[in-house]
Amino acid sequence: MMDKLTASVGTALDRFIAQKQEQFPYATGELSQLLRDIALASKIINREINRAGLAGIEGGAGAENVQGEAQQKLDMIADIRFTRALSKGGETCGIISEEVDGIIDTGNHHAKYIVTIDPLDGSSNIDVNVLVGTIFSIYRRRSPIGRPPTKEDMLQQGTEQVAAGYVLYGSSTMLVYSTGYGVNGFTYEPSLGEYFLSHPNMQCKEDGEIYSINEGGYNTFDEGLKEYITACKDREYSSRYIGSLVGDFHRNLLKGGIYIYPSTSKYKTGKLRLLYECNALAFLAEQSGAMATDGYQRILDIKPTEFHQRTPFYVGSPKMVEEAMSFLQGKKHKSVTAPPVNGVEVK
User: Fold this and answer.
1) Which fold does the domain 210-328 belong to in CATH?
2) Residue 98 is assigned to a ligand binding site
3) What positions does the domain Fructose-1-6-bisphosphatase class I N-terminal occupy (predicted)?
4) Which one of 26, 120, 151, 156 is most buried, counting C-beta atoms within 10 A?
5) 175 is in an annotated binding site
6) 197 belongs to an annotated ligand binding site
7) What percent of the chain stands above pLDDT 90?
8) What are the sequence ranges of the domains in the chain?
9) In the CATH scheme, what architecture does the domain 10-199 have?
10) What is the pLDDT of residue 67?
């Protein structure tokens, strides 16, 4: 009994970050502090979400963001909280956010990093107490130190990310991130106010039996995708779709599966944003052994041309993503056996 009561609570996030700092010999602590700033802001958002109903901050704000989408009150609160934390932390010179049109100049012109962020993904689920999250990417600036951030700093390919992650606000709050050396997950212990390592070296299964897609848009999908979904049904795969990107991604990362937000007749280029949703999750996917594409090419290879650029998104267990791509590209049909992919027969 005493052993259980006095068992170690694990490795705290701050200590983990400090231990891993040696992986970046060129850095002098700025990236570590930036990750701490994000963790601090996420604790504040976690508090706001948990008291949303009592504080009257759930529901719509009566306004639209730059995407023309209805803003929730918590969208605006999360955007303000993260902007303040990153600005006052001093380690980022500029931010682009889903909720803002253009660059947020933090005034920290001597900082080395820029951040792209979706402050509160899935915020429309707040009213029904369903998972929501924060998604972020960190890049090194390209412009000279000491000057304001530029458009070139922001429009970088996903391959240039130095770190990326997400925070999942649910039955427990988790921070999952990678600096290019694997993916690690930390669970928040509210009584101590600390994140503790709970999911070290997260690995996605090579194959899975879960597909996550909003089938309400089935009639707007192209024929290849319809055939892939039919193949999943024929195999009696489980259909799981929360409507919160972070929640669906997190489940499939742990259990194996594929998440799909395709192009449709309504959204020709998809609906998810490349810079502050897809790049971050694609980075994490590849670090965990998963795969992320737009159905035809690797997400991290897409060259962004605008801040709020959208893209179709296929991410998850590599065998499932490769098979979905083969259907999309007309290389496989229900009645035809596909050629081997990387030497492995796809059934």
Assistant:
1) D-Maltodextrin-Binding Protein; domain 2 (3.40.190)
2) yes
3) 13-200
4) 120
5) no
6) no
7) 73
8) 10-199, 210-328
9) 2-Layer Sandwich (3.30)
10) 57
